[in-house]
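User
New here, explain this?
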Amino acid sequence: MSLINDDLQDLLLQYCEPENQLLQQIDRETNLKVLMPRMISGHYQGRVLSMLSKMVSPKRILEIGTFTGYATLCLAEGLAENGILYTLDINIELEDMVRKHFAQSPYNSQINYILGDATKTVNDLEETFDIVFIDADKKNNGTYYDLIFDRVRPGGIIIVDNVLWSGKVLQDKQDKDTRNITSFNDKIAEDKRVEKLILPVRDGLFVIRKK
């Protein structure tokens, strides 16, 4: 999924902060036990998410798509004192693993892990968010974006993962999944309510700032 070669990736990792022991454990366990482990954010993208979170110092974070909790804990590193991170996921099969990971972190009391269909559970959250990270089923990127937009404060940041789709967005003939990604990217490009850019990190991170 990375858009750069392995040698350059190794170089980038030399010049960023290391993973802590828990994140290393989550990465290893995910690769050993979970179907499609490449969905994990991983070291470099995790440090990007951590840095963005620390720059904002959010009081409220929303994550749509928990997977095994790696990105959750990276985002939590920037939480303000008494801040809360809500993370939504539909995969109950990973619940025990995810709760175990959170329990081992210093942010466990600040994380609210909610299982269910995020298009429905997000409506139960009466919060205004400083950061939203969307990394779930890609066909619903636009749906999630519309659902959360009014819940993001002015100046808040929405981050969307996998927007370069392994470079397939460059193809003239696109399959259904790639067309969904391209349609979402076009939707953001045309949205005058936000400032935006795509970071070519791993599989592409769309960073969107609400005006």
Remarks:
- The beta strands are 60-64, 84-89, 111-115, 129-134, 152-161, 194-199, 205-210.
- Residues 56 and 78 are 7 Å apart (CA to CA).
